[in-house]
Write a structure and sequence with these properties.
Layout: H1 2-22, E1 37-40, E2 47-50, E3 62-66, H2 71-85, E4 89-93, H3 96-106, E5 115-119, H4 123-128, E6 132-133, H5 146-151, E7 153-154, E8 157-158, E9 161-166, E10 169-173, H6 184-192, E11 200-201, H7 211-219, E12 226-229, E13 233-239, H8 244-258, H9 267-275, E14 281-284, H10 289-293, E15 300-303, E16 316-325, H11 331-342, H12 345-354, E17 358-359, H13 362-367, H14 372-382, E18 385-386, H15 397-408, H16 414-431
Parallel strand pairs: 3-4, 3-5, 11-14, 16-18
Antiparallel strand pairs: 1-2, 5-16, 6-16, 7-8, 9-16, 9-17, 10-14, 10-15, 12-13
Helix pairs in contact: 1-2, 7-8, 8-16, 15-16
């Protein structure tokens, strides 16, 4: 790695000598290069001038917004980037939940970041609003998963450097269920053999609607939210929530509720029951690995979602990546940081270790292949599709979450819930 930094330093010194040689006819007379240099900004790339000139301007710092888990990793590689380029890196801590709105508000005002970390389903809104800039991966697409890359594309352009892929799987209490079930029939049999009030914990009941965790029931028999084509993306005029296949999925959930396998639990209820050893199965994602690692009550494992009559339960796949702001002061410098300091095996592995979810970077996937938990979540993600990255996805969360909540609480039946979802999503989209 040190050789790389030395190489970049040499490139910048050579570039400085070239600029000095070309600037010999300036008004102040002949310019000489000294060891004390400062940098100035152009729209394309840094240029170097000598310290003795009276009008020198340093390259602005590279401002990166990251949350508390990822910020330390970015801060750790910043000194090497500064050594190689002379550009200072400023890492600002921003809560992930506030990131998108803060970028949209502060970017146009010149107070936003050059680079920030965000979710893939922001890409449609951010690109449409002119808040982010396309990224040129320089022919390195093969280093990333197809799902990771496609989820961060908009209108045929790559708008992000992917690094995380994640999806729900099924945690299980290994003391209650020594052998994890492969099918829904196996799951029911395991529940029948033990005595727990809530065997299969799924967030989205009681008082907390949750569209995200119910997506496997939409997709298991072929239902979908929006039609999708890999070449053209999502078709928001094709809403599949009221299809026969989606209704069958809702009826599966309805039957699990009626037979006592699934209770009406919100997110916290499902989590706490599992952590207390009172729940055999818990459907959620890798973001809860920290909670499980911090307790010593449950002997747990993780497995893929069960198949149903040979059909896979396809979860939402979430992707996170590094975006470049349209208002970045120097896009060339920002891309240099992303391609040669973020997209490296060491940095990507460090990001995984800081927040162990799935990875969109092939070298990291290979590095963690011997981790059975990471491998299971990766297999679960392979069964799903990345959640729609179109702005119209904002019309989905409320209607889908609310109607599944009503189904979970016994207020409506499966067919009515599916029909309501489709109608309400279509209405919200039509109203803009």
């Amino acid at each position: 790695m040190k050789r790389r930094y030395t190489m970049w330093t040499a490139v910048f010194i050579a570039f400085a000598l070239l600029v000095a040689a070309c600037g010999g006819d300036s008004e102040s007379g002949e310019t000489t290069t000294t060891a004390a240099e400062t940098t100035t900004t152009t729209t394309e790339a840094p240029t170097t001038t000598v310290a003795e000139t009276t009008t020198t301007e340093a390259l602005p710092p590279l401002v990166i917004w990251a949350d508390e888990k990822r910020a330390p990793v970015v801060e750790a590689i910043a000194p090497a980037f500064t050594e190689a380029t002379g550009v200072e890196v400023v890492v600002t801590l921003v809560d992930f939940g506030d990131m998108q709105s803060e970028v949209e508000t502060k970017g146009p005002a010149g107070e936003g970041p050059d680079i920030f970390i965000g979710a893939h389903d922001w890409v449609g809104g951010l690109a449409s609003n002119g808040a982010i800039a396309p990224i040129d991966l320089g022919g390195r697409d093969s280093e990333f998963t197809t799902t990771g890359l496609d989820s961060l594309k908009w209108d045929g352009q790559q708008y992000g450097l992917p690094y995380v892929t994640e999806a729900v799987a099924m945690y299980y209490n290994a003391d209650l269920v020594p052998e994890p079930p492969a099918t829904m029939a196996d799951l029911k049999a395991a529940c029948d053999a033990i005595e727990v009030d809530n065997c299969f914990g799924i967030p989205g009941g009681n008082d907390g609607g949750d569209a995200y965790h119910h997506n496997p029931f939409i997709t298991v028999f072929g239902g979908y939210i929006f039609g999708f084509d890999a070449a053209t993306g999502f078709d928001v005029s094709d809403i599949g929530l009221g299809s026969d296949e989606a209704i069958l999925g809702a009826k599966l959930l309805e039957s699990l509720i009626a037979d006592g396998y699934v209770a009406s639990t919100n997110y916290d209820d499902a989590k706490n029951l599992f952590l207390e050893g009172k729940e055999a199965f818990w459907l959620t994602g890798p973001w809860e690995l920290g909670s499980l690692g911090d307790q010593d009550t449950v002997n747990w494992g993780v497995t893929k979602l069960p198949t149903v009559d040979g059909n896979k339960m396809g979860p939402f796949v979430g992707v996170q990546g590094f975006y470049m702001s349209e208002f970045a002061q120097n896009k060339a410098i920002a891309e240099e940081f992303l391609l040669n300091f973020i997209a490296t095996p060491d940095t990507m592995l460090a990001l995984f270790e800081a927040d162990p979810r799935g990875s969109a970077y092939i070298a990291t996937i290979d590095a963690i292949a011997d981790d059975p938990v990471a491998a299971t979540f990766a297999l679960s993600a392979a069964d799903g599709l990345f959640m729609p990255n179109v702005p119209e996805m904002g019309a989905v969360w409320g209607p889908v979450g609310d109607n599944f909540l009503a189904l979970r609480n016994g207020d409506i039946g499966a067919a009515e819930a599916a029909a309501n979802m489709a109608d309400q999503v279509a209405t919200v989209i039509a109203e803009g």
